[in-house]
Design brief:
It is built from 43 helices and 15 strands. The protein is α/β, with parallel strands linked by helices and 913 residues long. The longest helix is centred in the middle third of the chain and has 22 residues.
């Protein structure tokens, strides 16, 4: 890219900006593209075909558009001396008749991007006439909830954002929550959680949100509350009562009606009285805003003549000083001039000022303005505006083109989008990377679309666009960090809801099923698995009524169903999870799709493992290897490693986990072949860290734990985080006597599982707290839950953490299962219980534990059993017991501190007999 100079013109290719003597020249995007091509070949003839290729991607149907753009370009470049800069060459094309100097632009280092939490937008235009109001708001901060109330289009959002930015430095984070797209208040919580980067898996996400906020200093701006006023009031009141350092600003057309609310009513901008002729536009804020928007946005000469000011005063007076109406009016000045603009307001003004009592509340002040603005659009602009109303919130230019394509060709769509932007009906989002319609404009255009009889093809195109985006999201799932993935695809959820509703309305079951089947990742990561389940149940009901069932859709739906039952419904959902995973596997086999077979069968393995049926899960993994061969290797190794660990085959578990880890490659998560949504890297590191601990390789275990915790915290995948901390991190740190670290990660486990309503993992946290003797959970509640679940890794890990605090009944329950990995420890604890009761059989259980740990090469359990045998020694075994401890200490490179202290006491002291 370069800067091209000719005569008094300068064309900056990088910035796509044409200036004349330093002043910007207004030029459409197509005309600018043509100029770039002509200037790069100045003095040479550029054929029409070359211009078609460069500007219209080779389309020769743009002949008329080319002529129009050439005329616009000639007009923009015309001066008294250079009227023919763009010349036509008959039968050949066009050339730029000028000597062009090419200069590389000065390299400006990119500014350092500051890491600021929150999404509070800045203001892209000046704020006029609201200084006093904002100052009064600052002075009135007697409570922590302030509502800015006023009619539509009055500027509530602008004032709220400016006010929040004014006090932004006093707070750690600032969030802007746009409620305009929501149709039900129950979705406010999930929307807020998603915005904050939280994943919530329950019907009421507010406890998790409140827990995440805690005592942090945060600002929240809840915008457009009026259509969900009761639900918004409930959410805001709960936040303000539970979070002492939060400040909340709400915008609405009516008050929230909660005790802590400070209401600030926002009125119109100042307007001159009837018949008054101000000498300066600065005298009244409505006039100042109109002038600013005309001069700043449209780059025309200032309107300072007396006659101009009289007309401007009349215009803003007729518009009642409503900022949005003034924005619309200012955009028409360049096309109509002040006189025609003023005259055109006569008919709409009556409706705008008084409204229709039978009209919806939102339309009582803006309906006429929108009618009036709509009347000035070209037919193509009207068509595109209607089509864009199918989007829930923001959208890309590509998305806009796709939904409009059933009605117009690409060139007409692009020109219409540019026209809508220039007329203030289509704007950029707060981030500047997407387009959006104001909510009132979107609703207006939606009504027009409905009456146009063209709604069905447009909404069908929108639904197919959503489907394509969902497919992209799945491809990107293992490549992007969570925050990047959510930034790219999280906002798609509202468009997905609209697309699903459309398919149900028109009876397009095929597209409905595809959307539900492809949307699993989105629902799950946004914590909306309960809502997802409603659609899955509908979809499966449709499938069951269908003779020719699509196996690809069937397997995706049923695997998603199984994952919800497993992660959210815990023990109560295990049977249904297995049934759905089995059905999913059957459909996947019909397809011959190895990935989908692995996902479904690994889901069954996850349930079996959770139930302590390790041998059955291990055998199922071997069957998968036989069935699928190399394609299953990575997934099978992960499952075998998991269950080999629990069966006590520590060396095998470590080796298989290491293979699975290396096979994961550059994938961030590796969850697509896991029915339970476990990350492959997470599970592999977890097994390696824990088996290294059991084998007495303490330094290796701690290194792997560091890598594991850093990875799960960075990836921020709640299910994988809970798995890692439950099965690996907490048991190892507590086992090593590193209690402070163990309690820290137990708190993270509890917070993550509670915040995301993951009942299965909340139960793990409850069990660990019970084992540690804390008062966080009632012992009777924790015991009842452990007994209900029966044998399995939750019971076994709880016992190893609790040690001698655990009752004999739970020890007997665990010993009746397949707990090979911790059986030596279970035998040791049972032996101690018996010895403490005076039973001489206790040493036999200690000896069995020591012998089993020796066969497993589980040095950590060996040392514990040896310490216990020496602690409860006899006169006959005293020397042998001491020598055993001394020998084992020599086999460790690093001895766990908690066990070393006991060993040293034994070697330094006398026997207890």
């Amino acid at each position: 890219m370069a800067v091209l100079r000719f005569f008094e013109f300068e064309l900056d290719e990088t910035r796509r900006l044409l200036t004349r003597s330093g002043n910007p020249v207004k030029l459409g995007s197509k005309a600018l593209d043509i100029l770039v091509v002509l200037a790069s070949k100045a003095g040479e003839v550029v054929t029409r075909e070359e211009l078609f290729d460069a500007v219209w991607s080779g389309s020769t149907s743009a002949e008329n558009s080319l002529r129009v753009q050439i005329m616009a370009l000639r007009k923009a470049l015309a001066t008294g001396e250079t009227d023919d800069l763009v010349q036509s060459v008959a039968g050949r094309g066009y050339l730029l008749s000028a000597s062009v100097q090419r200069q590389k632009p000065v390299e400006i280092p990119a500014p350092r991007i500051l890491e600021v939490r929150g999404n509070l937008p800045g203001m892209h235009t000046s704020i006029i006439g609201r200084g006093d109001f904002i100052r009064r708001c600052l002075e009135a901060r007697r409570t922590r909830v302030m509502s800015v109330v006023g009619p539509g289009g009055i500027g509530k959002t602008t004032v709220a954002i400016e006010f929040a930015n004014t006090i932004r430095e006093e707070y750690e984070s600032a969030f802007f929550v746009d409620l305009a797209a929501l149709k039900a208040g129950a979705r406010i919580g999930p929307t807020l959680a998603s915005l904050m980067g939280l994943s919530v898996y329950g019907s009421d996400p507010m406890p998790g949100i409140i827990a995440a906020i805690g005592h942090s200093k945060m600002i929240f701006v809840f915008d457009n509350c009026e259509h969900v006023i009761e639900q918004a009031a409930e959410v805001i009141e709960r936040m303000s009562l539970a979070c002492p350092n939060v400040f909340i600003v709400a915008t609405s057309r009516e008050t929230l009606g909660i005790p802590s609310e400070m209401v600030r009513r926002l009125g119109s901008l100042d307007i001159p009285a009837e018949g008054e002729s101000p000498a300066s536009p600065a005298s009244y804020s409505a006039m100042a805003m109109f002038m600013d928007r005309v001069e700043h946005s449209l780059e025309i000469a200032s309107l300072n003549q007396i006659d101009d000011l009289v007309r401007v005063a009349a215009i803003v007076r007729k518009l009642d000083g409503i900022p949005l109406a003034i924005e619309f009016a200012a955009a028409r000045v360049i096309d109509l001039g002040l006189d025609q603009l003023l005259n055109s307001l006569n008919q709409p003004l009556t409706v705008l000022r008084r409204g229709r009592r039978t009209a919806p509340h939102r339309q009582r002040t803006l309906q006429a303005t929108l009618d009036w603005s709509y009347g000035f659009l070209t037919e193509n602009e009207k068509t595109v505006l209607q089509a864009l109303s199918v989007f829930a919130q923001t959208f890309s230019r590509d998305g806009a083109a796709l939904v409009c394509r059933p009605l117009l060709d690409n060139d007409d769509i692009e020109d219409a989008i540019w026209g809508l932007q220039s007329k203030s009906l289509l704007s950029r989002s707060e981030t500047g990377t997407a387009l959006r319609l104001l909510e009132t404009t979107r609703e207006y255009a939606s009504i027009k679309l409905l009456s146009s009889m063209r709604e069905t093809p447009v909404r069908d195109a929108h639904a197919r666009f959503v489907l394509a985006r969902l497919q992209d999201a799945e491809l990107e799932w293992d490549r992007l960090a969570t925050y990047q993935w959510l930034a790219s695809y999280g906002g798609l959820i509202n468009d997905l809801r609209l697309a699903l509703a459309f398919c149900e309305t028109v009876g397009n079951t095929g597209l409905f099923l595809e959307l539900v089947a492809c949307s699993g990742l989105l629902w799950t990561q946004l914590g909306l698995m309960n809502e997802q389940l409603l659609y899955i149940e509908k979809a499966i009901e449709v499938l069951d009524r269908t003779d020719a069932r699509d196996p690809a859709i069937d397997t995706q739906l049923r695997s998603a169903y199984g994952a919800i039952a497993y992660n959210v419904h815990s023990v109560a959902g295990d049977a249904e999870a297995i049934r759905q995973f089995d059905l999913a596997a059957s459909s996947a086999r019909t397809l011959g799709d190895a990935t989908k077979i692995l996902r479904a069968r690994s889901g069954v393995c996850a349930v079996l493992t959770t139930q302590g049926r390790y041998r059955e899960a291990y055998g199922l993994a071997l069957t998968l290897r036989d069935e699928l061969g190399v394609a299953a290797e990575s997934t099978v190794n992960r499952i075998l490693a998991h269950n080999s660990h629990y069966l006590g085959s520590h060396a095998d578990a470590f080796g298989m986990a290491e293979k699975a880890l290396h096979a994961n490659g550059v994938n961030v998560r590796g969850t697509l072949t896991s029915g339970a949504n476990f990350g492959q890297k997470t599970l592999s590191l977890m097994i390696m860290a824990k088996t290294a601990y059991l084998r007495g390789e303490i330094a290796t275990s701690l290194e792997l734990l560091d890598e594991l915790t850093a990875d799960v915290m960075a990836v921020d995948h709640p299910i994988s985080t809970c798995l890692a901390f439950s099965v690996g991190v907490c048991p190892v740190y507590f086992g090593l006597g590193m209690t402070e670290k163990g309690r820290y990660y137990l708190e993270v486990l509890r917070d993550t599982s509670t915040r995301n309503s993951l009942v299965r993992w909340q139960e793990w946290a409850d069990g660990f707290d019970y084992a540690l003797g804390t008062d966080i959970v009632a012992p009777s509640t924790a015991l009842a839950s452990l007994r209900l679940a029966g044998n399995g890794p939750r019971l076994e890990n709880t016992i190893t953490i609790g040690g001698e605090r655990i009752g004999l009944d739970l020890l007997e329950m665990a010993l009746s299962g397949e707990a090979g990995w911790c059986e030596p420890e279970l035998l040791r604890l049972k032996g101690i219980k018996l010895l403490q009761r005076g039973s001489s059989e206790g040493r036999q259980w200690l000896t069995q534990g020591f012998e089993l740990s020796s066969r497993q090469s589980a040095r950590t359990w060996q040392l514990r059993c040896a310490n216990s045998l020496a602690t409860f020694t006899t006169a006959a075994s005293f020397d042998e017991d001491r020598l055993r401890v001394e020998r084992l200490l020599g086999e460790f490179t690093e001895v766990p501190a908690i066990d070393l202290a006991i060993s040293e006491r034994i070697l330094d002291g006398a026997p207890e007999m």
